[in-house]
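User: hey, got a sec? need Poly(A) polymerase folded
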Amino acid sequence: MDPSTDLADLPEPLIIPRADHPISRKDIDREALKVMHRLRDAGYSAYLVGGAVRDLYLGKKPKDFDISTNARPGQLRTLFRNSRIIGRRFRLVQVFFFGGKIVEVSTLRCRSEFEEGEREEDEVLAHNNTFGSEAEDAFRRDLTINALFYEIENFTIIDYTGGVADLNNRIVRIVGEPDRRIVRDPVRMMRAIRHAARSNFTIEERTWQAIIANLDTLRLCPDSRVRDEFFKDLNSGACAPWCRLAVASGMFFLLLPCYEGIISREPEAPTEETQLLFSLCQVIDRLHSEGTPLPEHLLLATLLLPWAQARFNLLHLPAEGRESFVFSRNLRAEIDSQLVHLNVKRASREDITSLLVNLPVFVRHGAEQTWPAWLKRKSYFPDGLLFFQLYQEALGGSPADLAPRPEPSLPPRHGKPRTGKSRKPRTESRTPSFSGKKGGIFGLK
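Assistant: Yep! Here you go:
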C-alpha cells in the first residue's frame, strides 16, 4: 500500500470467525488471557498480536504472548498496579505475575510513514510513539504473517494485510512497499529471512529482491540491534536453513565479512568451506533441539572454523616456532576486527582464539584415541574437547555431547611429595602459550 494513502482509505479487514480458524483459548497463556479479560471488562479493546497469533495458527507453542490495546500507557498503569512502563522508542507496559511471569502490553500505534512532512521521509528508525488504530498498527508491522490480531470478545482473527493467506501459502512478505519499508528499518530484512528459515516458508519475490538491493542499509542500524537479531538467528533452532538463505542473499557476508571470497553464494557449486559451514550449523540446530544451545564463544568459534581453516590452513600448522607464534597473533587480531561490530566481549574473543588455536592438538590426539594427562589438566580441556566433537560430528562422526562431564581422573605425579609451606598455584590463562615446549603455539606444555 502506498504510504501517501489517506487513513480513511485503509482497507477493510478480513474477519475470520472462530469456526474458520484453528486458534483456541486453551492454547493461550493463562496470564495473557487475564490481561485481555481485564482490558475488555474496563471498556478497552484487547488483542493478541504478532508472533503469538502466527505460531498458534501454525500449531506451534508461542514463546511470548504480546497484547495490544487502545488504552494508553498511563491508563494501563492505573488498571494494572503490578506493572511498569518501559522503552523509549516504543513505550510498553509490563504486567507482572507470580513466578516472574511478564505479559507485555502495547498501545496500538500508527505507522510512521503516514506522518505528514518531509523531515522523516528518509529517516532510519524514526520516532514512533504516535498512537493509532488497528489498521494503522497492522500496516506498521514488519511482515504480513506478524500483522494479525486475535480479539478476545468474539474470538476472531482480524487480518488487514493478507497475513492469513500468506500463512496458508507459506510465504514471507514485508508489509507495504518492500524497498521503502526496509530503508525505514533495515532489520526487517533479518526478520524476513529468520521467519522463512524457521517455518520453511518461501520469501515473496519482491521482498527477496528488495533484501538483495538494500543490504548495505543494515550498516545504518545500531550495532546492538544487529547483534541481538544475529544471535536470535543462530539460536532459533533453524541456523542451517537461515545460513543458506543468508548466504544466498549476501547478508551473511555483512554479518561475517571474513567469509567474502571463501564460501560460495551458489548452492549448485558449494566449496569445501561452504559444506563444512552448513554441516556445523546443522550440529548447532541439533543441540538446540535437545535443549542444550551453545554458549556464545563456542557458537562463534564454530561459525568461524571454516574461515580459520581456509585463511590459515588451521589443521596443518606447526605446533611451535616463529610461524606458529605469528599465526596466533594474526588470528587474534583478525578475530578482533571481524567481531567488532557484534560487540563481542574481550573474554569471549580470547576463548574463541583459544578454541581455534588448540583444535589441531585435539585432532591429533583424537586420531590416536587418547587424551594425555597434561592435556586433561588444562583449563580449556572441557571446551576444547567439545569443540573437537562438534567438528567431528560435522564431518560425519558421532554426535557431540553437551552433558556435564565429571572431572577427568589423572594419574598422580611422580617424585617426592613437597613439604613445608605450599606454593601459591600459578594462574593459567586460557589464551595460548608461546613457550615452544611440547605444543608451543597451542598452549600445551
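Quick note: The chain is about 40% helix and 10% strand. Let me know if you need anything else on Poly(A) polymerase.
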